[in-house]
Amino acid sequence: MSEGISAWQLVASGDATLFAIVRLSLAVSLSAVAIAVVVGLPLGAVLALTRFPGRSALIVILNGFMGLPPVVVGLAVYLLLSRSGPLGELGLLFTPAAMVVAQALLVLPIIAALTRQTIEDLWREYRDELTAMGVGPTGRVATLLWDSRFSLITALLAGFGRAAAEVGTVMIVGGNIDGFTRTMTTTIALETSKGNLPLAMGLGLVLIGLIMAINAAAWGVRLWSEQRAG
Amino acid sequence: MMRASPSDLPIVLDGASLRAGATTMLDRLSVTITPGAPTLVVGPNGSGKTSLLRLCMGLAAPSAGIVTWGGRTDSGQTRRAILFQKPVMLRRSAAANVAYGLAQAGCPRHLRTTRAEELLDRVGLLDLAARPARRLSGGEQQRVALARALARQPEILLLDEPTASLDPAATRHVEEIILMAAQSGTKVVMASHDLGQVRRLAGDVVFLVRGRLCEQTSVKDFFDRPSTQETAAFIRGDLVL
């Protein structure tokens, strides 16, 4: 019980180290989601609208990748970025950039797969109307993405939740270096194993609070814009 | 807007069939749609009215036989517009729905707002322009879709029972808009099972029963001298199955 109280105190006191850790975690996860969105939305939309041999297999693989184990992604990125790896010369291993890349790979399948499903459902409804208006392939993708914007917010939140909560990839490719690549989740893991439970619990509360706040904000935006656009 | 391309009229269906799996929607239909007063496509539910409109629009390819537009088999859809029985409203305002149609028809960006307002005014919905289109009633959505179809300034306007879900006042309004379009040179092809509407609007009638052409004739002959038993039964108000 005393640990719970000191965890609250730590959060309330606005500790500088704690603040830096929170900031890095958010920066890494939000950047990863941004990259995954830029790649994943068009990828999902194109996959929804095109027909080619092997498409079904690709969709199954993409859906399966939503459950990709973070440690395996971390390992793969580690091998790519390690000094003897193909991208070793970039010197990115154990930097926040490496963590962003690894998390983006983790989030990309979630956003692409959920976008594919959403767009394919909407296309079924819009197909005749858009075809009759002579809308070309690029226009279709743009229209369908825009018109499913409310559903796609949920896909983004799922992606963000995945990135913010995982510990495996950032631990492996970030290295949990104090003051440089230490995030909320890696700190929680470390401090728990050291027996420093107040800090671990404090960070846990902050992490859950942040995820809740972002989801609440997204929900508010969705309600507000749905009322305006129908 | 896109008046440079050659005319899509006449639309000629020559022995055109439309099948999906074991179901035959249209069976060896030969119909010619020529310029002039509206052509009304008439028949009971499931007789193939919608399928005929889809073939005319080029949304479906015939399983057998051919369809030509002005003698061409590969006509683009720039000169045609269709109003579906259940039109799809894009998730934006009524005005934005019409502006979308204008954009697709090549209307320059700076003219779209004004033109969209003109078109909404024409269908009597100017005061609902800013409302989310999907929150409008069925009848209002139908009229937004009509404005969006008219935005293409079509040579041929295909309408699938556009007044089926409207009350008499709204029906009258929509019929006036359709007649106005027809008088300004647009060829109207319209599915209907309302015989009063056929009398009011039709120049000629295409009468379908179970996916087959029963007869194509002038509206006068359709009512005064029906040439088949099915036609006679249909205009008497008997059930034609």
TrEMBL record, chain A:
PROSITE patterns named among the record's database cross-references: ABC_TM1
Keywords: Membrane, Transmembrane, Transmembrane helix
Coiled coil: none
Domain ABC transmembrane type-1: 22-218
An annotated GO cellular component: plasma membrane
Claim: Ribonucleoprotein is one of the keywords in the record: no
Alphabetized CDD domains for the sequence: TM_PBP2
Gene Ontology terms describing biological process: transmembrane transport
Cell compartments where the protein resides: Cell membrane
Alphabetical list of InterPro entries matching this protein: ABC_perm_TupB-like, MetI-like, MetI-like_sf
PANTHER family: PERMEASE COMPONENT OF TUNGSTATE ABC TRANSPORTER
Protein name per UniProt: Binding-protein-dependent transport systems inner membrane component
Automatic annotation (TrEMBL), chain B:
Signal peptide: none
Name of the molecule in the record: ABC transporter related protein
Membrane topology according to the record: Peripheral membrane protein
Subcellular location: Cell membrane
Swiss-Prot/TrEMBL keywords: ATP-binding, Cell membrane, Membrane, Nucleotide-binding, Transport
Protein's organism: Mesorhizobium alhagi CCNWXJ12-2
Ranges of residues in domain ABC transporter: 11-235
An example molecular function term from Gene Ontology annotations: ATP hydrolysis activity
Family under the similarity heading: Belongs to the ABC transporter superfamily.
PANTHER family per the UniProt record, alphabetical: AMINO ACID IMPORT ATP-BINDING PROTEIN, GLUTAMATE_ASPARTATE IMPORT ATP-BINDING PROTEIN GLTL
Annotated SUPFAM superfamilies: P-loop containing nucleoside triphosphate hydrolases (SSF52540)
Major subcellular site: membrane
Any one of the GO CC terms: plasma membrane
PROSITE patterns: ABC_TRANSPORTER_1, ABC_TRANSPORTER_2
